[in-house]
Amino acid sequence: QVQLVESGGGPVQAGGSLTLSCAASGGISSTTSMGWFRQAPGREREFVAVDMRPGGGPFYRESVIGRFRISGDSAKGTVDLQMNNLKPEDAAVYYCAAGTRVGIFNRRRAETYEFWGQGTQVTVSS
Q1: What Rg do the C-alpha atoms of the chain give, in angstroms?
Q2: Long-range Cβ pairs for the range 71-76 (8 Å, 24+)
Q3: Which residues, 6+ apart, have CB-to-CB distance to 103 below 8 Å?
Q4: pLDDT digit string (tens) for 46-72?
Q5: Do 57 and 74 form a contact (C-beta atoms < 8 A)?
Q6: What is the per-residue pLDDT for 120?
Q7: Residue 30 and residue 51 in contact, taking contact as beta carbons nearer than 8 Å
Q8: What are the backbone dihedrals phi and psi of residue 88, each rounded to the nearest 5 degrees, phi first?
Q9: Distance between alpha carbon 109 and the CA centroid of its chain, in Å?
Q10: Alpha-carbon dihedral of residues 108, 48, 39, 35, nearest 10 degrees?
Q11: What is the bridge-based pairing of β-strands 120-125 and 10-13?
Q12: Over pLDDT 70: what percentage of the chain?
């Protein structure tokens, strides 16, 4: 059974940086895409970024382009999300997600991803 464990969340001031990390255990395949979603109070879970594997590269939601960077190691089953110039609207619980059938038409949808972490809180103060 694949399990995802996130780390790296916490409080930060607007304009600051945080790096979230996610590690998979339980035999995740190197071809499984790994990404990040977030959910703020009262809002639906929304796509943030994904490292599409194998070889599909990164893809981001528009509002984080130029500020967030996703990277990972498919052999190790890890993915990081480096977040710079954080804004109050970035505050949310961030979830690591992994999916075996992620493609260009479904990568933004939460239901595409079979495996989820417990989430890590990111708080941004203005």
Answers
A1: 13
A2: 72/34, 74/30, 74/31, 74/32, 75/30, 76/23
A3: 52
A4: 999 999 999 889 999 999 999 999 999
A5: no
A6: 98
A7: no
A8: -55, -30
A9: 13
A10: 80
A11: parallel
A12: 100
Q: Please give the distance of CA 55 from its chain centroid, rounded to a whole number.
A: 17
Six-digit token string for 112: 């595409």
Concatenated DSSP letters of 3-65 = EEEEE--EEEETT--EEEEEEEES---TT-EEEEEEE-TTS--EEEEEEETTTTEEEE-GGGT
Cβ–Cβ < 8 Å for 33, 51: yes
CA distance 114 to 36: 13
Q: Which of 2, 14, 21 is nearest to 73 (CA)?
A: 21
pLDDT, tens digit (0-9, with 9 covering 90-100), for 87-112: 999 999 999 999 999 999 999 999 99
Three-state secondary structure call for residue 110: helix
Residue 113, CA distances (Å) to 48, 99, 123 in order: 13, 4, 25
Burial pattern 39-55, b for ≥16 Cβ within 10 A else e, equals: eeeeeebebbbbbbbee
